[in-house]
Structures
1.
Amino acid sequence: MKENFSKSLQHVLVHEGGFVNHPQDPGGATNKGVTLRTFQRHFGSDKTVKDLKKITNAQLKKIYRAGYWDKCRCDQLPSGVDYGVFDAAVNSGPGRAAVWLQKAVGAVPDGGVGPNTLSKVAVHEPAVIINAICDERMAFLRGLRTFATFGRGWARRVAGVRRVALEMAGAALDDAAPETPSAAFETVSRGSTGPWVVKVQEALGITADGDFGPKTEAAVKAFQEAHRLEPDGIAGRITLRALGLLV
């Protein structure tokens, strides 16, 4: 639905977060879900990582609407289905998101949302479409070689998208469904204390006393090495995602 773009973008940005430039991320430097390559494609090849760090809200809206929302014709999809397709497009590409939508409604999976796909969407319950898309998405993610590293975070993202999309569609929710994740987090390291240290310790399966001491640092480094992350002992966004604490 046309009026759902701004709301859907807000939810997408919760998942995408801020600036990251991790060596194991094939997308390279990324800010709010926008890679440097995508930023350059929309605003010029002379744009740099420094420019990407300063991306404006207007630039974000232009990229997300033209590159994902409009490509999947989300203006013409039912409430909830539009967000589910949009988030999938941002995370895995518009063509793949379109195929998942088409499979959900029994249309030819050619990766382009056209009149035939839209006509089939119209005769299916939005909740059924949403659940089918999320199931297809999880099956795809589980097949990626990096699932062992980032799988828990990806699974939480899809679960959050499913919940919000079903809410937007007015569908009944499972009381056990996860809450929508928060964008707020705290990077913790040696000497840190507080609730985010407890979260990290619980995720690592060690004593959760809220005090980031040498044992916690050693456990974080061991986890990072096992998951092919930089073993710096600092639990920042990438490590927190790998631990399943962020999406």
2.
Amino acid sequence: MKIAIIGQKGIPAKIGGVEKHVEGISLELAKMGHEVYVYTRPSYTDKNLAKYKNVNLISIPSINTKHLDAISHTFLACLDIIFNRKFDIVHFHSIGPSALIFMIKIFRPKLPIVATFHCQDYYHQKWNKFARGCLRIGERIACKSPDKVITVSEILKAYTNSRYNVETEYIPNGAVLQTQEEAQEIKNIWNLEKDSYFLTTSRLIRHKGIHYAIQAYNNLKTDKKLVIAGNGFFTDDYARSLKELAHENKNIIFTGAQSGKILAELYSNAYLLLQPSESEGLSLSLLEAMSYGIPILASDIPENKEALGDAGFTFKNKDRDDLEKKMQELLDFNLAKSKTEKEISRIRDIYNWPKIVKDIVLVYEEAVDNKKGK
């Protein structure tokens, strides 16, 4: 099957849950023998990179601003699909880019379309009122227009059914079980050792709740450090405010966005992953942490509870005091480590990429058959 994947910034993934999701499914699809084409943006993926691990990359320019980057790139990618290429199926990701599904529907009406609903992005505080309205329109199109719709959580599946009377296919995000890396690079750069720090891994965006983690940590009685791995995304004011919150505490370390070996070392050697998000789709940072078998303390939003099951610890969403209390309790080593085997089991049994991508291929085949009237 010749598959186009559209809506993401690109691969290999550096930051961004959608990008990590697309990398996971595209690599697995290629392993299965499918011909996969991922559209990329030159601001994210080197435009001269034409192939990544048997996945074909198509670099298309974009207007690299906060509000126009995704939609301009998707527009030009749609034009490329309409006029320049032949695919068996097109897979859109995220509700913003999905607003342009109508272009394919009008000009290539026989081409099957699948859309994945990752997250209700209009709840993210980085967007203004106009952008949120556009995202809601994109959501409606993503849920009503494709031949098949995938939701990454049971919560989004129930929402889509209730809101739009659409039955979607629930296929979650995934991860790969990891072997732990010794603290080498992170020891050389930041003097970090095994179990010596709390870790957060996300973009520095307000709805990710990093300010709660810093506020709670500042009141904590511990010699463990707080490591914040991530950078802003058109959110310089928020990133500055975090550094102001942390400026008097020399044990708070901002590493910037990390990937590859350094990120693997950060996960492997963390004492506890903190995930204080106010809203999520199905957090890939949680799944990644689970794949390394490290303890997790997350906000008790439904999406986090769905991912963790009984394999992690939670605190009351947006409640700094409860977060501090739970962090203090989890300084008990045996308590903190008590659920890590359950995390690994959930990755192996529920959130593993080979199983997930087999389910996606079934959705593709059904979309193709429906288009042909079978």
3.
Amino acid sequence: MDPERLAREELARRGERFGAALALGKAAAAFARGARETLAPGARRLLIRPHSAAALLDPGWEQMTGGHPLPDRQSVAAGERLERWLAEIPPGPLLVLISGGASACIEAPAPGITLEDLIAAHRRLLASGLPIQQVNAVRQQLSRLKGGGALRATGGRLPRILVLLLSDVPGDDPAVIGSGPFADPTASWVETVLLGSARTAASVVAAEARRQGLHAVEDGLEGEAVQAARELVTRGRALSGAAVALVLGGETTVTLQGETGHGGRNQELALAAARELAGGTGELVFTLATDGEDGPTRHAGATADGATWEKVRQAGADPEAALARHDAGTALAAIPGALLQTGPTGTNVGDLAVYLRVSP
């Protein structure tokens, strides 16, 4: 799921040259490196990424950052700059590279909406438990750039726009990825290409499991994290064979109510899976966000096996209470090695949840 390789291979196959390039989201730096050979001399280049995402060490690109998962003042500054940039670039082919994380780090509030309104709306949406498709549909109503707004900002002056997408949303709808800044099914001069998604990542993981001798099955991941954990373990246990892997790719949700603790949806899924696995042997579940950031934490996800639930108790925490108040990160932190920390990975294709079983 290396965005640099995916972009380089797709663009090399096409052999096109572009007079301007725009990279947005968590994978923007890697995407920009992959596009280097396809840009004409003197091409205009703009890169906008979340503050925590990797920077690009290339002075040829103008770079800005914005907030994530909540927008901030720098997000608005980045959105205003993007609008001006799109209006200024000379007519000619434009290359657009979009990955997840673009929804928050680039903002241009719709008329009558303040930054404080946006932050409050984003916070409520993130806590709502709504699927990302519905979350981004609301975001589009609050922004001048989302839902095709960036395309409108070009004023129809560009003869061709190629949009390469790295999807972090179930269904891989171009109108949902990054809230669809260039999405418009009626714009014949815009070509959209999906380079990778959670389904691609799940296929790669399942292929590696098979190479190591496991019977592997892959599928999608969705729904509330606690319920998804129950289904993951149930389906994994139903697989036949002495060594099996169930690999799910996609995104779960967590509905927050009242006072909440620390963690992300992958950590909550792992702790809920620990409850299902409690007392068993030969089973392991691990979950991770492919961008290396599970919610507002520095961890990518977590692992759980048949001993995890009891180990949390022995460490002085109540795992049932931790699940109830969405405090999985705190509970799992009590067990050395349970939390997975990768740092920012430079890619972003949603989440993976994997069930493994090896019989003695």
